[in-house]
Amino acid sequence: MMSPPHLSFLPGASGSDEFWQPVANRLPADWTCSRLRWPGAGNEPADPGISGYGDLIAQVGVGLTPGADLVAQSMGGVIAIGVAVAFPEKVRRIVLVATSGGLPFDLPAVTDWRGEYRRTFPDAAAWVTQERPDFRAHLSQITVPVLLIWGDADPISPPAVGERLADMLPDAHLHVIAGGTHDVAHDHPDEVAALIRTHLTDAAPPCPGSGVPERP
Question: Which CATH number applies to 6-201: 3.40.50.2300, 3.60.10.10, 3.40.109.10, 3.40.50.1820?
Answer without folding.
Answer: 3.40.50.1820
